[in-house]
Amino acid sequence: MTMHRRFAVAFLAAAVVTIAALPVASQTASRPPRSDNAQPRADRTAGLLRHLDTDHDGFLSAAEIDAFVTTRFDRLDRDAKGYLTLDDFEARQHRALERATTDKRRAAIERSLPRVEAAYKTLNKSGDGRLTRDEYLAASHARFAAADTDHDGKLSLDELRAAKGRAF
Fold first, then answer.
1. Would you say 52 and 147 are in contact if contact means Cβ atoms under 8 Å apart?
2. Structural domains of the chain ordered from first start
3. pLDDT at position 40, please?
């Protein structure tokens, strides 16, 4: 598996964990135990499109992706340092690991950690252990450009479902 493909898989995993965590963060009551029945990829991709498509036109624009990625960076940068360490980048997976209710879920999260670390190292172009907002956004712009196969400046559901679109 190429490094680019590994990065795409790792970023998709991180994005899915982030999207899954958003509704949980807004709830104050305790949540029911997590089901081991994973949603089919097509439904998750359609859900991602619905969630990020703020103008409800059925497509994701570069601006909608930038807004999501910037918000995600800010949530990961809990100390507002302006950069992410590996610990910041992996924090959601570690919290998910603590909350996991089944061995199957724990194992899946543990398997994702090396991919998340590899994604961090790929994103941190300077290699200084400080992933800046600019590095984070640059990677998002590159993934958007790769996924936008018809070059219309927006991502359709089909483009998101294609191999290069799964990076989001």
1. no
2. 3-19+59-167 (1.10.238)
3. 59
